[in-house]
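Handout for the seminar on molecular recognition.
Each group receives one record of this type.
Step one: identify the two inputs.
Step two: read the structure output and locate the region that could contact adenosine-5'-triphosphate.
Step three: write two sentences on what you found, then compare them with the reference statements printed after the record.
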Amino acid sequence: MKIRENFRSSVKSLFHNKLRSFLTMLGIIIGIFSVIMLTSIGEGIKRQVTSQVESLGANLLYVFPGKVDIGHRNGKSKLGVRSDGMGPGQNTLTYDDVLALKGRKNIAAVTGFYNAVDRLDELKIFVSTTGVDEDSFHISNLELRYGSFFTKKERLDKARVAVIGDQANKELFKGRNSLGKTFKLNGKDYKVVGVLKYKKPENMGPSGEDLNVKIYLPITEVIARQKEKNISQITVKATSAEDIKPLEKTIRQTLLKNHREVDFTVLKQQDMLNAINNILSILTAGLGGIAAISLLVGGIGIMNIMLVSVTERTREIGVRKAIGATRRDILVQFLIESVFLSIIGGLLGLAAGISGAKLLPSAFPIIHTAISIPAVIIALLFALLVGIFFGVYPATKAARLDPIEALRSE
Amino acid sequence: MAINIQSLYKSYQNGDEITEVLKDVNISVKDGEFVAITGPSGSGKSTLMNIIGCLDRPSRGSYQLAGEDISKLNDYKLAGIRNKHIGFVFQSFNLLPQYTALENVELAALYSKVSPRTARDKARNALAALGLEDRLKHRPNQLSGGQKQRVAIARAIVNTPSIILADEPTGSLDSKTGREVLDIFKDLNQKGKTIVVVTHDLEIAGQANRIINIKDGIVQEVPQ
Ligand SMILES: Nc1ncnc2c1ncn2[C@@H]1O[C@H](COP(=O)(O)OP(=O)(O)OP(=O)(O)O)[C@@H](O)[C@H]1O
Ligand SMILES: [Mg+2]
């Protein structure tokens, strides 16, 4: 019999048993559905994080204290971040390093970061405040609702001025225009010079925090009243994308003048993205792998039903052989049945998975999904393989049936 | 195609127990003969038919079909012989329930690797020859017993085989319908086909050129 007729014959048999065919496919449908769903959730997280890192501003370089090896320049591990000598007391980045960088070639803006904890007298609570340079406004892409960011002069004067986030403005000033108003930190008055626009918490700030609760102060003012003088991070914005590479070198050389050894790390934005992407790719693959197990279970379901079907249709197989079917004809027919089940199941699962991935964010806005084409292709190929692999045994069994025994069966 | 069986044995083994079903069978059937096989239940009639039909192999002895030794042929060749040269008719019809009458008959033609269009035409003609042109789209469960057996005969003749093997073809039919089926076989025999029929019905046996009786696995020609 020609393959095309074998195919028609198989489809007819499957349609004859619609409910059973559907139930058999269900395993594959659910398997493919979960593979597509989970990988698109993983892919969605990846894209979201990437877009967030990119939204922090383009052409950025980061300087962290301690020696962090990102990528695989001298570590054995190929995934993620290895850190050495980051113990307490070894933080050696100072505000002098920021000052040394200011005005250098290829630098558009530079800011240090100092995270402090201060007592907010009005609300009788401790809050975290962030000491930054005036350049931070451009580097972090901040948007203001009222006023402006503090100035270079205010930074040089160690002025007690603040730029506050939307939530801070709500709690301190009931959300009104608070320009020129003051609030007390550790018993001293700080004047509001700017209020940030409300940002949805999911569009997080430079270090992944909620911008709405921020209180930005001139970094010089913060350091001046702290015992610990070391800063936690320096962020540098290059004048253009081409300048990033030379700038990385410039930063290293400049800082080395103040440091006896390389006890700091310069990271490009791309390095960070690569590291994050590495981790998230592993996560996505892991999720997909777990889902693939259900595909395997679906395959075993197909084998199970095909075996039942071979037993049930023993007589049919006998009749087919009696009227001239060869072993190959029977083998091909049953193989096509299982492959057809798994492919149709795969396509239905794909349709369900894609619509699920598209609908999920509207039900749970926090979850972002992105359908990954390679995952779709791999899932479908896998479904095909499952159909062949788990179809071969029942089909061989059918083909080998002795026609006499098959005809004698009730 | 002449059938030539010499000192043929068939036994089944179940564990330690060996059942000798056919013992030293010698039969030859010439082209165009109408042979009836009779005998009590369990005597080995179906076993013999299955061997003649190339569905089963003898344990010992030789079976030649048109001068060719069947025991030397592989599964693929045997399937070809069953398809092109032999037509089977069973007591219980053995039609596939998911197929219409036309599709059931067509199937045998498709296994002979003709084009789907040719297969359809052949199936239509075979069914028309048995007066079933208005039952093409009926499924087996929408047909009477006699109609089912006529579909089965149409399937047996669709590839124009030279031998038709019928194992109690009237066993499930009432006597009137049984007689109609018998007439079909007689008609086919007149058109030159070799017919071998297993039957308990003496009336049918009486119509045959020869009657072969099996008892306890031993075959005897019944003189007429
Ligand atoms: N696979 C088998 N294993 C053991 N014995 C078998 C097997 N197949 C058939 N037999 C035995 O062979 C004998 C002949 O069986 P067969 O079906 O040929 O009888 P029959 O003459 O066609 O009977 P009936 O008229 O009832 O159809 C029986 O006794 C049966 O039990
Ligand atoms: Mg019998």
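Reference statements: Strands of chain B lie at 3-14, 17-29, 34-38, 60-65, 68-69, 86-89, 163-167, 194-198, 210-215, 218-222. Residues 115 and 129 of chain B are 21 Å apart (CA to CA).
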